[in-house]
Amino acid sequence: MREVPIRENSIRLGQLLKLADVVQNGSDVKELLASGEVLVNSEVELRRGRQLVRGDRVRVGVEELLVS
Prior knowledge:
Blueprint: E1 2-4, E2 10-12, H1 13-19, H2 26-34, E3 38-40, E4 43-44, E5 51-53, E6 57-60, E7 63-67
Parallel strand pairs: 1-7
Antiparallel strand pairs: 2-5, 3-4, 3-6, 6-7
């Protein structure tokens, strides 16, 4: 699991995926979410605007990110 620190109290899922270098740009986020491969706290997430807070876990394939 890789920790991804954020500055504010929350961050949008699309922004987190870019910050963690999982994707390069916004269009990549949209495609990745449409594939159903992104889990937030063990549930499939399709919204790139989903607000995440510290302690949330995001899994993309075999990579797991912890918002910290």
